[in-house]
Automatic annotation (TrEMBL):
EC number(s) on file: 1.17.4.4
Compartments (UniProt record): Endoplasmic reticulum membrane
Enzyme class (EC, first level): oxidoreductase
Name used for this protein in its record: vitamin-K-epoxide reductase (warfarin-sensitive)
Alphabetized PANTHER family for the sequence: VITAMIN K EPOXIDE REDUCTASE COMPLEX SUBUNIT 1, VITAMIN K EPOXIDE REDUCTASE COMPLEX, SUBUNIT 1
Bilayer topology: Multi-pass membrane protein
A single Gene Ontology CC term: endoplasmic reticulum membrane
Keyword set, alphabetical order: Disulfide bond, Endoplasmic reticulum, Membrane, Oxidoreductase, Quinone, Redox-active center, Transmembrane, Transmembrane helix
Gene Ontology MF terms in the entry: quinone binding; vitamin-K-epoxide reductase (warfarin-sensitive) activity
BP terms from Gene Ontology: vitamin K metabolic process
Transmembrane portions of the chain: 9-27, 80-98, 105-123, 129-149
UniProt KW Membrane keyword: yes
Length: 188
């Protein structure tokens, strides 16, 4: 996959993640404002997005309030962290540097560990299925694949740039085969 196409996929999945986080934040705020509000993602009692959004795990991943005071500025709704993640990875997607691609990959990998944690909480602790949450988890996984492809393609692009800057590769250095054994002896 070329650098341009992997960057495009990264940007595409970032936009999807940003939109899903925006919808999650909208639903969370609308339910706090009007408790009778029923969003589209509430299909029945066991398939509901308002249940996880309004649970203790819907703010600060359910961890921040155990470590810091409940009114601490880090104890934000989870979609706010999603906005931060997708903003950062969008910014990192715009550049072709291998170092920034590695940072992007590891940030998205960390987000996927968060998705696994929240997916476990969603299914086994809250015993619920949130369509928006699962869509965000899937988007994070696809973003991980796109980030990995971008990281690989920028690494290859860096090698190609080094070859262009420092001249052609020494094409005489090859592993010995039956046809070039004499060439190999010359290179020793």
């Amino acid at each position: 996959m070329s650098v341009c196409s992997s960057r495009a996929f990264c940007l595409y999945f970032n936009i999807i993640g940003f939109l899903l986080s925006g919808y999650a934040f909208y639903v969370e705020m609308k339910v706090k404002e009007d408790p009778t509000y029923k969003p589209l993602c509430d299909l029945d009692e066991n398939i509901s997005c308002t249940k996880p959004f309004n649970s203790t795990y819907g703010k600060g991943f359910g961890v921040v309030d155990k470590v810091l005071p409940a009114d601490h500025w880090l104890n934000q709704p989870n979609p706010i962290y999603g906005f931060g993640l997708y903003s950062l990875t969008t910014l990192l997607s715009l550049f072709r540097y291998h170092f920034l691609s590695k940072i992007q990959f590891y940030v998205v990998l960390l987000a996927n560990f968060g998705s696994i944690y929240l997916g476990y909480i969603l299914y086994f602790v809250l015993e619920n299925l949130c369509v928006v949450c699962v869509a965000i988890y899937a988007t994070n996984f696809l973003l991980l694949i796109a980030s990995f492809a971008k990281m690989r393609s920028t690494r290859l692009g860096t090698r190609r740039m080094d070859i262009r800057e420092h001249g052609q590769q020494d094409r005489n250095l090859r592993l010995p085969t039956s046809s070039n054994r004499r060439d190999f002896k010359k290179n020793i």
